[in-house]
Amino acid sequence: MGCDGAEGRDLQLDACLASGASGAQKCLPYIVVVVELPQAGRVRMLGNLLGDPRQTVEIGAPVEAVFEHHNDADPSFTLLQWRVAVPKG
Q1: Is 19 left (phi over 0), alpha (psi -120 to 50) or beta?
Q2: Separation of alpha carbons 56 and 26, rounded Å
Q3: pLDDT at 86 over 90
Q4: pLDDT confidence of 29, banded at 50, 70, 90?
């Protein structure tokens, strides 16, 4: 079952403050991004943008995936994060 007719065109970006206890609080502040994958049917994913949390980020800026492996955890897992892509050349 899918939502073929659902399209989000009125996206809104809001600032929010983190509350509660979690492992992510050790990394505050951080930038949460919505990444659209055009090669995967325009699927959108939420994720953390690595780098300076005070960096200026342009909507539509190209990003690349960074896979952070946590092999010491039980069970082990890999966390997908993002960073602004450096132009090649």
Answers
A1: beta
A2: 22
A3: no
A4: confident
Distance, in Å, from the CA atom of 86 to the CA atom of 8, rounded to the nearest integer, reads 28
As a dihedral over the C-alpha atoms of residue 85, residue 80, residue 69, residue 25, rounded to 10 degrees, the angle is 100
End-to-end Cα, the chain, rounded Å: 44
pLDDT value of residue 28 = 76
In a domain, 54, yes or no: yes
Does residue 12 fall inside a structural domain? no
Q: In whole angstroms, what is the distance from residue 26 CA to residue 52 CA?
A: 15
The model's pTM is 0.65
Reading the block at residue 89, the tokens are: 């050349």
The answer on pLDDT for 54 being more than 70 is yes
**What total number of domains does the chain contain?**
1
E strand or H helix at 67, and its extent?
strand 63-70
In a domain, 32, yes or no: yes
